[in-house]
Amino acid sequence: MSPEELQYNIIDYPAGSTLVREGDEYGKLFVLLEGKCTVYTHGVEISSFDEKGACFGEMSMILNVPRTATVKAATDVKVSKPRTVTNFVISFMLAYPIVF
Predict the structure, then answer these.
(1) Residue 19: which of 41, 34, 38 has the closest Cα?
(2) pLDDT tens readout for residues 14-38
(3) How, if at all, do strands 77-80 and 10-13 pair?
(4) pTM over 0.85
């Protein structure tokens, strides 16, 4: 892994991969950098997103509860899984450089 990948925990997932599974123990949030994801609850597709900088997994992290949905990679995706709040802000800045 490059120093950038170690610092911001940038991960590539192939299409079809499950990034977050409904009911799993809470965990960290993800920031979408590239690709498209699909969201399912109780096995039913409820939405999809492909906006660079979109966050998911935050509900579980903030509320300290099990995951409330499953998120799968609809295409090959690249995500940042920030290790700290500071790294989250930096990941957001990387996704939206025009804002900063």
Answers:
(1) 38
(2) 999 999 999 998 777 888 999 999 9
(3) antiparallel
(4) no
- CA–CA distance, 32 with 19 (Å, rounded to integer): 11
How far, in Å, CA of 31 to CA of 67, rounded?
A: 16
> The sheet that has 30-34: what strands, in order across it?
10-13, 77-80, 30-34, 55-56
Residue 5, number of CB atoms within 10 A of its CB = 12
Contact between 20 and 70 under an 8 Å Cβ cutoff? The reply is yes
Question: Rounded distance, CA 83 to CA 92, Å?
Answer: 13
Extract the runs of DSSP E, i.e. beta strands, from the chain: 10-13, 18-20, 30-34, 37-41, 44-49, 55-56, 70-73, 77-80
Beta-bridged to residue 13, according to DSSP, are 77
Can you tell me the distance from the alpha carbon of 20 to that of 18, in angstroms, rounded to the nearest whole number? 6
